[in-house]
Design a protein that fits this description.
The structure is a single chain. By secondary structure, this protein is of the alpha/beta class. Among the domains are: 2-82 and 258-279, Rossmann fold, CATH 3.40.50; 168-247, 3-Layer(aba) Sandwich (Rossmann fold). The protein has 15 helices and 12 strands. The chain has helices at 2-12, 24-29, 36-44, 57-66, 89-98, 112-116, 127-133, 145-155, 167-170, 174-183, 197-200, 209-218, 232-239, 263-272, 281-295, and strands at 14-19, 32-34, 50-54, 71-73, 103-107, 120-122, 139-142, 160-161, 188-191, 205-206, 223-227, 244-247. Helix 1 packs parallel to helix 14 (263-272). 47% of the residues are buried. The structure holds 1,3-dihydroxyacetonephosphate and iron/sulfur cluster.
Length: 297
């Protein structure tokens, strides 16, 4: 399969992009693996004609908005993000009507329609900088209540938070962390800001998946506890052969949508040039500014 994929990639002029939560085999075959911001930046400067996007739907949609002239394929169109689905454009419009003077920051885990209604987008790696850039204004933050609360705490502000969350990170509990800390005393905990507050309060570092990879590589420490989706451990292990990583909750912290992409589906995607991800022009033209303002920061 790998050989066929490489041949088809050359024929189609394609690149394979993968998120850090993809299964090991997919990450191994990808040309570039990264977090949401790194993937958006890569999609904004494509020289390739075709992208096979191994991640969830909003990520491929963001690439389609940033590179409308390119062909963006997702190997499984059913790979969605339940958190992104928690807020609709209609719900956001209702919230905006209640807070007409506020600026809307939307987490990149949102639909193109929601981005089209927002002032600026953010990811977990730049959310603080993005919110800071807005100055002294009221902020409506959608959809992740955890990332929003984390940023508000950091900036010493009150945000109007939407009540969305990541069901996978919600399954990482403080009791799991405490049990792991007892088993591995003195080992640093790296957690994702999508984790709930009790877990965030136990973390030594709150980082996006890409930041976790860079932090673990640069650190003098040899062992880490990891509180995020399990797929991140592939990069942590392969990039740091001399270091140990202990996932806090290896049984439950698995995103079923990220796991829908397989090597077989990548092959079919390149063979059939499916499923193409497109965004209607009227929505894309409104959403692109929201994403571009983030990339400019
Ligand atoms: P990052 O890779 O940007 O940290 O995002 C995590 C995530 O949950 C993506 O769905
Ligand atoms: Fe969505 Fe959470 Fe899965 Fe990321 S890990 S795609 S936020 S459900």
């Amino acid at each position: 399969m790998e050989e066929q994929i490489q041949d088809l990639k050359r024929q189609r002029g394609a690149i394979i992009l993968a998120h850090n939560y993809q299964i090991d085999e997919v990450q191994a075959i990808a040309d570039f693996t990264g977090d949401s911001l790194e993937l958006s930046r890569r999609a904004a400067q494509l020289s390739e004609e075709v992208v096979v996007f191994c991640g969830v739907h909003f990520m491929a949609e963001t690439a389609a908005i940033l590179a409308p002239e390119k062909t963006i394929l997702i190997p499984d169109p059913n790979a969605g993000c339940p958190m992104a689905d928690m807020v609709t454009a209609e719900q956001l419009r209702a919230l905006k009507a209640k807070h007409p003077d506020a600026k809307v920051v939307c987490y990149v885990n949102s639909s193109a329609e929601v981005k089209a209604e927002s002032d600026i987008c953010c990811t977990s790696s730049n959310a603080i900088k993005v919110c800071e850039s807005l100055g002294d204004v009221e902020i409506v933050f959608v959809p992740d209540r955890n990332l929003g609360a984390f940023v508000a705490e950091k900036l010493g502000k009150e945000f109007i938070l939407y009540n969305g969350f990541c069901p996978t990170h919600e399954r990482i509990r403080d009791v799991d962390v405490l049990a792991m800390k007892e088993k591995h005393p003195g080992v640093q905990l790296l957690a994702h800001p999508e984790c709930n507050k009790p877990v965030r309060d136990l973390a030594d570092q709150l980082l996006s998946t890409g930041q976790m990879c860079h932090y673990a590589k640069a650190s003098e420490e040899k062992e880490f506890l990891i509180a995020t989706e399990l797929g991140i451990n592939y990069r942590l292990r392969t990039e740091n052969p001399g270091k140990k990583f202990h996932p806090v909750n290896p049984d439950r912290a698995v995103c079923p949508n990220m796991k829908k992409i397989t090597v077989e589906k990548i092959l079919w995607s390149l063979q059939d040039m499916k499923e193409r991800v497109t965004v209607p022009a009227d929505i894309a033209t409104r959403a692109v500014g929201c994403i571009q303002r983030m990339l400019d920061i």
